[in-house]
Amino acid sequence: MRIRSLILAAASAVAIASPALAQELTAITGGRVLTGTSVIENGTVVIRNGRVVSVGTGAAPAGARIIDARGKVVAPGFVAVDSGLGGGEVSSVSGTNDLRNGANTISASFDVSYGLDPWSFTLPVARLGGITRAIVVPNHPGGGGGGHAHDDSDFAGLGSAGLQSPSLFAGQAAIIHLAEGTDILVKPRVAMVAPFGEAGASIAGGARGAQFTQFRETLAEVRLYARNKAAYDRAGLRDLSLSRADLEALIPVASGAMPLIVTVRRAADIQQVLRLAREEGVKIILDGAEEGWLVADQIAAANVPVLLNPISNLPGNFETRATRMQNAAVLDAAGVTIAIKGNEGSIHRARETRYNAGNAVSHGLSYESAIEAITVNPARIFGMAGQFGELRPGAAADVVIWSGDPLEPLSNAETIFIGGAEQAPTSRQFLLRDRYASGGEGAMPPAYGR
Which of 93, 195, 235, 388 could link 199 by a cystine bridge, Cβ 3.0 to 4.6 Å? Predict the structure, then answer.
């Protein structure tokens, strides 16, 4: 019995503590409140049953649990975009990467939500950086999602059964929350993902023009299939280059109901993608857009949002010759809705999202726009406006109390609520540090204590 209790104690020493139950009524008072769209000095944020009840300057309601935030900053939880959180653990261990799929019969229909791991060690680390939600995207050549890229040498053409191999499409993105628990999925299949530019050209045969032609033909096949499902079922339709699962998955893209996240870097490629979207009636989100500032007015006129890393400033290839750290500021000034990404796939370095936002401010982006780019804008871009990423009545109570300005690297997230539940301010790294530094219970096998 004693051995069993020691084993349980040792296990609990390395387990991430389960979240505190959501308080029936909690009031965070006296802090500088960043709502996501405005600033309230000496504000009060009231949450109940997982939702924000009110945000303002009034007194705390009677009977509420009071959290004194005087001298601190209260902000919405940040949203990581183009992320691999929950879908990848160690890049060099392929078995831990559920963001990449190589089957030619399952491409557009690849759904990352089925590979999510709520016990991933990466989630608490990101949470300590103020991240409370994430847009998880599948991998593809040239993409940032998860930081694992395909081998660009994959051949192009038709595979077995006449199916595209490899496909133009990487799969479908999902939204997750980072709260402790066993179910982190918020919404699956929120966007399709596809590479363009050099990466897309390599899939289609080596030339950009070939990819655009193949993309148009694919959409034509999807629309043909959507109009003639009965004929397809009885083998009365010509052979198509995608599997039935992929055709079904692309119907909402072809109809403009599901956005297509397009990884594209070069200004000339951005122009052609905007043209393609306009001619085909496809709703797109630009990902990367390192040279976007050169065509900012065109992106704004097309009402197309951009996911970007504002610290990309090195011309590493001919797609990024004009990359610069003012990209975010120029796009924002032109009226483009931007969302700021973390680094290296936003998995292990997702917490650096706020650092990137701070760097964008140092290069001309307004502070208010930087906060929007990591809170309300991601929610807007992915059809979740008002549901998270903002402190407003009715929104999910994703609230973080910071020791200081959240865009300053030395500030710490002191109290974190996700969906109204207070989260343990720790991670596996901290637990292991404390376990072995102190030599306390669990530091040695149970037999050593006899």
Answer: 195
